[in-house]
Amino acid sequence: MKIAFYGSSLLSSYWNGAATYYRGLLKALARLGYDITFYEPDVYDRQKNRDIEAPDWCAVVVYEATPHAMMQAAA
To answer: pTM of the predicted model, to two decimals?
Structure first.
């Protein structure tokens, strides 16, 4: 099963305490066989402050933080 997950950031916990929760939850789902793509907006300099690189257990799509880019990412 494929899962599209939209959140503040998987790659950076900079101004984003949820990153560690996302990582644990999605890594556990990947171990169960789920194919996961995480969509995160490029905001608050998070991409400059990454804690991790894109993991092998989840695809990560970083999109521009505009309504149009979000609609494109969601399509």
So the answer is: 0.87
